[in-house]
Design goal:
It is a single chain. The chain is an alpha+beta fold and about 80 residues long. Helices cover about 15% and strands about 15% of the residues. It has a 3-stranded antiparallel beta sheet with strand order 2-1-3. The protein has a domain of about 50 residues. It starts with about 25 loop residues before the first strand and ends in a 17-residue tail after the last strand. The longest helix has 13 residues. InterPro entries: DUF7455. This is DUF7455 domain-containing protein.
Length: about 80
């Protein structure tokens, strides 16, 4: 056994922050296998402490600063 975690699926709009209910962009998988989901705001507050306790962090908060391709201007 390598100790590596199985790949996690991407977070979707259905995944909600365990603190406030907003859309989750950060998943913390604890060493015991439990998961915590956080919005970007609450993730920034808790990720360092969770990582120090051995949690594996999946951070998709960079999606908040990207522009969807469908919003790009038409280049005709």
């Amino acid at each position: 056994m390598t100790g590596a975690l199985a790949p996690t699926k991407p977070l979707t709009a259905l995944d909600r922050c365990d603190r406030c209910g907003a859309q989750a962009y950060i998943r913390a998988t604890l060493p015991v296998g439990a998961e915590l989901l956080f919005c970007a705001h609450h993730g920034r507050q808790h990720v360092a402490a969770l990582r120090d306790k051995g949690a594996e962090i999946q951070d998709e908060s960079a999606r908040l600063s990207t522009t969807p391709a469908s919003a790009a201007p038409d280049e005709r």
